[in-house]
Design goal:
heterotrimer; A mainly alpha (169); B mainly alpha (118); C mainly alpha (348); B: Methane Monooxygenase Hydroxylase, Chain G, domain 1; C: 348 residues; mainly alpha; two-stranded antiparallel ribbon; 13 helices; 4 strands; 3% strand; globular
């Protein structure tokens, strides 16, 4: 059951990620990216990480992609899409990098064990205290400093957004 | 547990079938007698002017960017709220610092008039 | 049959019943809205089809199914067709975690009157509600019409602006309830302070007010229906939609309205809880039935409230709308979190 669902979600995620690259219309690309995020959320649920799944949809599919869609909608798709740049140079470089990347990935998976270190929060423990509660009790005690630093990062984001808008006049 | 989400999967499939089926059925039943003026974009009766792909105000992008920031802020408060009883005063202070920094951002937005539509 | 198959069949029945109930709720709401508008404006409203006009939405539905289907010449066809389906799909899926009754013992099985009892309940609703925006934006973009694009954009900017306040307004409830699971939140509210039921409305009045206002904006209704705005944008993103595709936006909007009313009831008004009934010694099945009825009555009270607001208030101006969302509701929601936190620290 779980394996079947994993295969389905995984296959749809990979297929739609492929469609993001292949499709001609940028808006369609953006929508396929949302589908990819959605399938990733499904995978998180299968991993018993429901809170992360919700974050995945709320932050990525629901917030960041809205900005993407806004930007992409502004493009005049008719003209840009059909101009057809010739990208021979980029293509050959790209192929080299893809081969290198696959070699790297393959060698890592073969040499190193992919399952990480075992922490105190096993699947049983998480089920007992609740997924969100487990996440929170780590974030707001052990990782307090990074959490507070995030606020400064977000403040920088706010200022950046405001400055971008103001420079237009 | 993942099994709790199984009914949601059923609902996803059924409502996808229903909404897809509705579009398909109305396509099947509806008459089709198209003509050029029926299919032209509606602009209150006059012939359409120019391109429909308007350039729109940069304000919309600012709203979308600010939304990402505050949305992220929102989802970090959820886990905090759930264990607030345990964190107690410590939790109040740490969230106070976090939200305080973001309130500075909100004041900045307000003072700069970034959301002023004019 | 093995127990898993029985569970699966129960799930299937619950899903179908809820989908049917939502569709039925929309049908009732169409009549309530139109008759209610008539009542408020001192006219009759539809009263010819069936007794008191109750069959009007059925007649409308059949008519819309048989209407001519047109696809504008310049429209981007796949997305133009997909957008209304997606909007309705999301609206129906969002309802999944709302509990409409307590547990029921039936044939030796405990059945939860809810499609899915998940531990991230409230986040699930926000996750799917935030996806609804694409149904509108994509409709606006793919129709290739200036009004559609403007309406879609405005609506998207408005929905995301109020989503922030919406999300922050219920933090107080979660701080008291200590869980994201909607059943736990209702469970908290079934207790009493001497005689007063512990409904969250009494502890979180400000949070409730913010949530109510943001919910109206989130479902794009007057006074926040800037995406439609008949006088300036005709009807915004829907302008190039006819026949059943138009009806699907209608269905989706009313389903969203029902979901948000149900959410208000669950978060602030005790969900299916009927106060002071515990001492009366009623048969458990009858009690469960009464609780479902109580839930439906509470939801319809809020649905009527939304109808009332719609036909009473004028529309906001767009700049007022944005300023109100970001610079009034958002700081108020943060203020509410702090007050709740301070009170909870001071009074153990």
């Amino acid at each position: 059951m779980e394996l079947t669902l994993f295969v389905i979600f995984g296959a749809v995620a990979v297929a739609s990620a492929f469609m993001v690259i292949v499709s001609r219309n940028p808006v369609v690309s953006a929508l396929f990216l949302i589908l990819t995020f959605f399938c990733l959320a499904g995978l998180y649920v299968l991993l018993n990480a429901q809170f992360i799944a919700a974050l995945q949809i709320i932050v990525y599919a629901g917030a960041i992609m809205v900005l993407f869609v806004f930007v992409v909608m502004l493009l005049r798709t008719g003209k840009e899409a059909r101009r057809g740049y010739r990208l021979i140079f980029q293509k050959s470089i790209g192929i080299i990098f893809v081969v290198l990347f696959l070699l790297l990935l393959g060698s890592i998976t073969l040499m190193v064990s992919v399952t990480g270190m075992r922490g105190p929060y096993t699947a049983e423990a998480v089920r007992h205290i609740g997924n969100t509660q487990a996440f929170a009790s780590v974030l707001f005690t052990d990782y307090l400093y990074p959490f507070e630093i995030i606020s400064v990062l977000l403040l920088a984001g706010i200022i950046g957004a405001v400055v971008l808008a103001k420079r237009k006049r | 547990m993942p099994i709790d989400f199984l009914p949601i999967l059923i609902l996803l499939i059924l409502s996808a079938l229903m909404s897809g089926g509705m579009v398909f059925l109305s396509h099947l039943f509806g008459r089709k007698e198209p003509n050029p003026s029926k299919l032209s974009p509606y602009e209150c009766g006059i012939p359409p002017v120019g391109d429909a792909r308007l350039r729109f105000s940069v304000k919309f992008f600012v709203v979308a960017m600010l939304f990402i920031i505050f949305d992220f802020e929102g989802v970090t408060i959820y886990p905090w709220a759930v264990i607030f009883r345990k964190l107690h005063l410590f939790g109040l202070v740490e969230m106070g610092v976090f939200l305080g920094v973001l309130l500075i951002g909100l004041v900045y937005i307000w003072r700069k008039g970034a959301l002023q539509w004019d | 049959m093995s127990p898993f198959w029985i569970d699966l069949i129960i799930m299937l029945i619950k899903v179908i019943v809820v989908m049917g109930a939502l569709l039925g709720g929309v049908v009732v709401m169409v009549v309530v809205e139109r008759r209610g508008a008539g009542f408020i404006q001192g006219r009759l409203g539809p009263n010819r089809v069936g007794p008191w006009g109750w069959l009007q939405p059925i007649a409308d539905g059949i008519k819309l199914f048989l209407k001519e289907e047109f696809i504008p010449a310049q429209a981007y066809k796949p997305l133009y067709l997909a957008a209304p389906a997606f909007f309705m799909f999301i609206a129906f899926v969002t309802f999944a975690v709302i509990p409409f009754g307590d547990k029921v013992e039936l044939f030796g099985r405990t059945i939860q009157l809810q499609i899915a009892d998940v531990n991230i309940g409230i986040l699930y609703i926000f996750a799917f509600a935030s996806l609804g925006v694409y149904g509108i934006v994509i409709a606006g973009w793919s129709s290739n019409n200036k009004f559609s694009l403007m309406g879609g954009l405005r609506s998207a900017a408005q929905m995301i602006s109020y989503e922030v306040a919406l999300g922050l307004s219920i933090i107080g409830v979660l701080m008291v309830g200590q869980s994201l699971r909607l059943n736990d939140i209702i469970g908290m509210q079934t207790q009493y302070w001497s005689y007063l039921p512990r409904w969250n409305i009494f502890i979180q009045p400000l949070g409730f007010l913010i949530f109510l206002i943001a919910a109206i904006a989130e479902v794009n209704r007057i006074p926040f229906d800037l995406c439609e705005a008949e006088q300036e944008l005709v009807v915004g993103y829907q302008v190039e939609y006819g026949s059943m595709k138009f009806a699907m936006y209608y269905l989706g909007e009313y389903t969203n309205l029902i979901t948000f009313s149900a959410l208000i009831v669950v978060l602030f008004f005790g969900g299916w809880h009927i106060p002071w009934i515990e001492g009366l010694n009623i048969h458990p099945l009858l009690l469960a039935l009464l609780q479902v009825v109580a839930f439906v009555v509470k939801v319809f009270a809020f649905l009527w409230f939304f109808v009332w607001v719609r036909w009473t208030f004028p529309r906001f101006r767009y700049d007022q709308l944005m300023r109100f969302g970001w610079l009034v509701l958002l700081p108020l929601a943060i203020f509410n979190i702090f007050v709740t936190g301070v009170v909870m620290v001071l009074i153990p």
